[in-house]
Design a protein that fits this description.
With 143 residues, the protein is α/β, with parallel strands linked by helices. It has five helices and five strands. It is globular. It is found in: Cytoplasm.
Amino acid sequence: MRDKDILWPTDFSDTASHALRYAIDMANHYQVGLRILHVVDQPVADASYQLLIVTPEELAQSMEKAAADSMHKLLAQLDTSLHVETIIRRGDPVEEILTEAKDADVGMIVLASHGRSGLSHFLNTNVSEEIANKSTCPVLVVK
């Protein structure tokens, strides 16, 4: 872990931004790079509704462009001397984060917990919990 990059998955939320500080601190401490990952959900369309003006592929491309714009804004605000790589993937967030961690052979994943509890916890997929349970590298979940 001490010589491998830190992976910080983000959805560009304030909660995720809070975890970025921890990711930067860890990367600085171990003098490694920072990989920033955003996963765009694959749009799903049902042809029977016929409400889409754009195709699911066009929608996904638009979402990827918006993510790239957000990534550029984020990079412009970062004040760090770290080596930073950005990645945008399309698909299921859990699968894509775990795949990126494995493919890039990262030393740690630092991500935010959205802090759901009670009924909301059971009704919504908890990405951070699933990643912590399935990851083969250490995971730091920031509240």
